[in-house]
Amino acid sequence: MSGPLAGIRVLDLSRLVAGNQLTMLLGDFGADVIKVEQPGHGDTLRNWVVQGSEVYWKVYGRNKRSIALDLKNEQARELLLRLAGESDVLVESFRPGNLERLGLSPETLHERNPKLVVVRISGWGQTGSMSQEPGFGTLIEAMSGLAAMNGFPDREPVLPPGALADMVAGTYGAFSVLAAVRHAEAGGPGQVIDLSLFEPLFSVLGPQAGTYRLTGDAPQRSGSRSSSSAPRNVYATADGQWLALSGSTQMMTERIFRTIGRPELVDDLRFRDNTARLAHVLELDAILGDYFGAHNLDETLSAMRTAGVTAAPVMDIGDLMESEYFKTRGVVIDGPGPEGMGSVPMHDVVPRLNGTPGSVAAAAPGLGQHSREILQELLPHERWEELQKQGVFG
Fold it and tell me: What is the reported pTM?
């Protein structure tokens, strides 16, 4: 691997999305990510298949090497400790306490490698009253306030369609790893990162705690409207399409009013400033809805773009894959497939660095594909063969 993180070795013991998102980001920029999996089973993402294809694993397992170790086996745990002694980061997502029960506590790991950064991913964190509770992302999305805010006021709360809590936590986790590794490289000791799924998601919901203390009110579901600015919504067009519109600045709102042929609304007391527009948002949405409902999407977008209005079509993945933006920006690339079996469409490396860009250099590995390669760095050939016969690794 090459890239700005080349030379950093990461042991990934995690399962499912958060840990894989975290280590994928590190691997995309050159870290040597060794995925430690259970023989015969592997990461749960391998079982998330679409028409027989491991699409989730192919994306989030990219740029990683796989070793299959049975951590219930004492000899396998010793091999892991030896690998930890030569690594910079270890990522795990066991329920709090399980790492200790395996004899792999942070204290034990730091005895082998005082510089090691240990990332502990869990639903609720290593401390607190819920630390021992199951913590799948769905529960976090429900309890964080997200579902209560999401959807329409006359309908049930809405959970996100994807693993949002995991993805946010994984991205936070990658940042925290870089901060901790930087500290270790500067002469400091390794440390433990307590990464819950709950706190990262809560943090991106905005100033909810401050708003609640000031008002005593929890935010209510408002569909696609915003609680902080108006206009902001999606509107049906005459041809059955949907257009998203945001007027989050005064200048933009005035531009919208002029573009729809209603310049008098600029001085209308109901819509003169953002506070007034929020108070009269139903009336404002009715005016905008009538305009967009009388025009087709393409003609509406043309008028809005000519005027510099912040509007965009609501698109699904089929629309996106055919869009000019996707093609000219290169949002999706054809990543390498497993063992030369063809390319796999996937998102390109994010974010883009012009001096030290990341890359998708290696396909997601098969279970235990690199066991021999990795262990030969630690063991003589005879010992490697002996442990393989004993079922210590696969």
Answer: 0.92
